[in-house]
Design brief:
2 domains, four-stranded parallel sheet
């Protein structure tokens, strides 16, 4: 008996391959998604041809996040869908008028009906059809196309068309890039369904071993797509930034932690500052590092000055040089200078990571914000550099609230995480290109 690897979402089988598994599919899963158990209930019979079940399963919502991080955006899915649809429409039009093909009258009429359906089948309608199929637990079948005795009139026409395209296309459209189409399907992630890759038959046939780390094998196999399939390297100005961002990522997106690799300042004995981060960026570019890399600078004067020399360097597409996003909180923030306490917009002047820790961290017992103190004038960018006071204490308070929320996620809504969420959003979307 031939063994098959089957990829499905809810009741829909999306892909089936004989005797082998697809490394591209496996890039969507981690070993934490692995589900393995013995079919047999009688432990005494385990030694006699045990039948293992092996699959990888993750909620479609998790798959959507992973695809976004890898750069497979909705915009990209829409562009690819339109291109494939245009090609399909062109082929049908040519078949109708090409005398060499010589379609019969009934075949011409059939093609015209199909053409009208495709010309109206936007990606949004395609997604809604996928939603309908999943919600109603439908399976693809040629009989939906014929609709004899109007048996399937209750099913929307676009959905009937998609269900009738069995075997030759991906639910009514050609498969060009599997992960891009999965990103489109992921738009129905609110249905709380799982993407499941079942490899059980490959174990029975010996194509896969239960000891295999398929996630790691997949990464090594897809060497031609190294930049997409390997972890995104994250560089920051210092080790405290790394710890804070890593902690927030673990809290809000634990399913994405294996998709990022943060620089280990302690192991590398690296210095922390905007200048050193800019030098690291130049070193990465000069060495031709092919990993996708994100350099996250503070949103302050020192960072602006450090980034200036990079303006004369061609930044490769696998490298993103970003600053922390502007904060609404920072648009009217107290500062200390020669003229005393003055509230002003400190975005681009003094927004180090601490200002993203949240109001619950930045306010003292009286509800006042710990102020920014101006440190000096940087002539290169003609502006002052400021730093929030009591940095060490602010880090301790942030670490305390992070620890509480990691231990009990129900506590999250009791704290202000808006600033850290902005940073995580910038990190997650670094390669979206939107």
């Amino acid at each position: 008996m031939e063994g098959y690897a089957s990829l499905s979402v809810g009741p829909i089988e999306l892909q089936s391959a004989k005797s082998e598994w697809d490394p591209i599919v496996m890039t969507l899963f981690t070993e934490a998604d692995r589900v393995i158990f013995l079919h047999k209930d009688d432990e005494e019979s385990y030694d006699e041809d045990p039948e293992w079940h092996l699959s990888y399963s993750a909620p479609l919502k998790v798959i959507k996040d992973r695809l976004e991080v890898m750069g497979f955006t909705y915009k990209r899915a829409d562009e690819l869908y339109r291109a494939a649809l245009s090609e399909e429409i062109g082929n049908i039009r040519r078949s109708i008028i090409d005398p060499v093909i010589g379609l019969q009258d009934d075949e011409v009429e059939e093609r015209k009906v199909e053409l009208a359906t495709l010309e109206d089948l936007t990606l949004e309608k395609w997604i809604e059809s996928i939603r309908y199929i999943i919600e109603n637990d439908l399976q693809p079948n040629w009989e939906y196309k014929d609709n004899k005795d109007n048996k399937y009139d209750h099913i929307p026409p676009h959905t009937r068309y998609i269900l009738s395209r069995v075997g030759d296309t991906f639910f009514g459209n050609k498969i060009v890039e599997l992960r891009t189409y999965l990103r489109a399907i992921a738009e129905v992630s609110d249905l709380n369904v799982e993407l499941v890759y079942d490899l059980s038959e490959l174990i029975i046939n010996g194509n896969v071993s239960v000891e295999d780390d398929l996630h790691e094998i997949a990464r090594l196999t897809v060497a031609a797509e190294f930049a997409v399939n390997h972890k995104i390297v994250v560089l920051t100005e210092g080790s405290s930034d790394i710890r804070a961002i890593q902690g927030a990522l673990q809290l809000f997106y634990p399913h994405l932690t294996e998709y990022f690799s943060f620089m280990d300042f302690d192991a590398a004995k690296a210095h922390g500052s905007a200048g050193h981060l800019a030098s690291t960026v130049k070193s990465f570019i000069g060495a031709g590092i092919v990993n996708r890399t994100v350099a996250l600078f503070d949103n302050d004067t020192a960072a602006k000055d450090a980034i200036r020399p990079l303006d004369d360097i061609k930044i490769p597409p696998n490298m993103k040089v970003l600053r922390y996003p502007d904060l609404d909180l920072a648009r009217d923030y107290p500062t200390l200078g020669p003229q005393g306490t003055v509230s002003m917009d400190v975005n681009g002047l003094a927004c180090s990571l601490e200002l993203y820790f949240g109001l619950d961290v930045l306010q003292d017992v009286n509800g006042s914000l710990y102020p920014i103190q101006w440190k000096g004038y940087i002539d290169g960018v003609k502006q002052y550099q400021g730093e929030v006071m009591e940095k060490k204490m602010l880090h301790a308070r942030y670490a305390e609230k992070l620890e509480k929320c990691l231990a009990d996620p129900k506590q999250i809504n009791n704290y202000d995480w808006s600033g850290m969420r902005l940073i995580l959003d910038r990190l997650r979307s670094a390669f979206n290109g939107d």
